[in-house]
């Protein structure tokens, strides 16, 4: 099944759902696998699970091709989530990110998410858990996914700072 995405120039570009690389980060293994399953049922087969923020950061850093979307649970520890999102933004490890789950606990951190939202790292919003692939697909209809190989970007240093290309 083909999905259509509208670019900044309003050109209609067709992509297979399977071409969209999605990294899903959750700290509950059951919820993580349920999200992967829901997306697979909807035709998003290029999804990758990461159990926790550290595993997510390692997956982003070690990817041969960049992920198009980083989908994170709202139940993740906020300090770890903020480190993950800042590293993804600073090192250009993905272009889009979204949250899944109850947005209530994050209300006090809205300014953080607004400050992260730039032209190179876009926030797609918060989706309910369990994920409804239809609503997720509708949000994706308004973004442009660039299909490009990852260029040697600075690797994130887990201790803080940049270690440079590896």
Instruction: Please give the CATH class.
Output: Alpha Beta
Cα gyration radius (Å): 15 Å
Number of strands: 9
Question: Helicity level, as a percent range?
Answer: 25-40%
Q: Sheet with the most strands?
A: 5 strands, parallel
CATH fold description: Rossmann fold
Strands ordered across the widest β-sheet: 4-3-5-6-7
Count of separate structural domains: 1
Name the beta content range.
25-35%
Counting DSSP H or I runs of 4 or more residues, the number of helices is 5
Organism: Pseudomonas fulva
Protein name: Response regulatory domain-containing protein
Please tell me about this protein's structure:
With 166 residues, the protein is of the alpha/beta class. The protein has one domain (2-146): Rossmann fold, CATH 3.40.50.2300. 31% of the residues lie in helices and 27% in strands. The strands form three sheets. A five-stranded parallel β-sheet has the order 4-3-5-6-7, with helices on both faces. The protein has a two-stranded antiparallel sheet with strand order 1-2. Strands 8-9 form a two-stranded antiparallel sheet. Strand 3 (22-26), helix 1 and strand 4 (47-51) form a beta-alpha-beta unit. Helix 2 (53-62) packs parallel to helix 3. The radius of gyration is 15 Å and the shape is globular.
């Amino acid at each position: 099944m083909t999905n259509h995405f509208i670019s900044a120039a309003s050109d209609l570009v067709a992509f297979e759902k399977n071409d969209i690389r999605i990294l899903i980060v959750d700290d509950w293994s059951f919820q993580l696998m349920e999200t992967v399953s829901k997306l697979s049922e909807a035709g998003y087969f290029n999804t990758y699970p990461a159990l926790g923020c550290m595993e997510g950061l390692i997956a982003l850093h070690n990817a041969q091709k960049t992920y198009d979307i980083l989908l994170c649970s709202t139940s993740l520890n906020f300090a770890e989530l903020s480190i993950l999102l800042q590293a993804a933004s600073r090192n250009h490890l993905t272009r889009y990110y979204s949250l899944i789950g109850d947005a209530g606990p994050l209300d006090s951190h809205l300014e953080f998410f607004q400050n992260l939202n730039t032209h190179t790292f876009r926030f797609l919003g918060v989706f309910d858990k369990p994920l409804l692939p239809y609503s997720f697909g509708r949000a994706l209809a308004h973004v442009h996914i660039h299909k490009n190989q990852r260029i040697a970007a600075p690797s994130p240093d887990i201790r803080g700072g940049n270690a440079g290309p590896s």
